[in-house]
Amino acid sequence: MKVRGAIMLNSFRAVHLSPARTRYGPRKRLNLRSIKDRTNVKDETAMAHAMLDFVGDAVLATDTCANITYMNTAAETLTGFSRKEAQGRPMEEVFRVIDVTSRVKRANLAQHVMEFGAPVELHNSAVLRARHGRELAIEDAASPLRNAKGEIIGAMVKFHDARFSAETTARMAYRAQHDSLTGLLNRYAFEERFTQAAALAQRHEKKMVMLFIDLNNFKEVNDTLGHAVGDEILQALGSRLLGCVRATDHVCRHGGDEFVVLLSDLAEHEQAFAVVDKVRESAAELLRQQGHWETLTVSVGISLFPNDGETLEALLPHADAAMYRVKTETKRVSGGSQALNL
């Protein structure tokens, strides 16, 4: 057979045959486009499978009969079935799910989304009965699979271990409300706690006291001994402050070397003085224990709720101003906002 010409097309050789006739009729042009298209589909499928193996969620896909056509590595791990074992089997044989409360077998999620033509959002009321009887709390969701014409050709189900999700959610919630160095409330969480405590105080005609605490000479110690020592000091002081208050009180790292304490649910403001004395003694003991911390002192400014204000925006400046006054004074200032040098 005579080849008139040839060119390279990507990795395929496109061959054009002479149009001359043969005893079997006119020669036909060999069309390799369909071969290339099929190869591209295989490449895209392989890439999609690699991407699904990379994600953290377990993923499985079914055909319109809810038989498994694909399962990623995470799904293999959670179900206990290999991809080869699961291929072609009914999804309910591999993805066996019961309700967490009733322990009743749950409806086939793939069939459900194909029947209604709409996805099911993530929910966490399911238990996966994996291979060999192992049970695992999961969160799962599903969606119908459609072709280019919009026709449903199967379903995709994703799921993951609910324990990790709960742990991650709790960890993120904690980090959003707490200072990363000391573990104390951050300013945003403290504001929420103040709002709640103030509402209760007004309802029950209670009083509150706010302490604004500053660590004197901290910058010099931090610059001289290094940031690691500075961090250690802040952590130690934060821990001491927590030990001086009740579970119903709130301690916040306001920023840098400043701390704010809210003493709530007080019958009289004078009740706060015992806590202030406790803070003074605890801080002094801490700073004495470490020889290189002996140059540090603590100043505290006090504001009274509702006398000095009923909002955080009103009380913080009072306590802050009182704290700065005490940096140059060594006596307790009577009335309204008060200050102490510890």
From TrEMBL:
Its cofactor is Mg(2+). Residues 206-342 form the GGDEF domain. GO terms for biological process: regulation of DNA-templated transcription. One of its GO terms (molecular function) is catalytic activity. SMART domains: GGDEF (SM00267). It comes from Marinobacter gudaonensis. This is PAS domain S-box-containing protein/diguanylate cyclase (GGDEF) domain-containing protein. Residues 44-117 form the PAS domain. Pfam families: GGDEF, PAS.
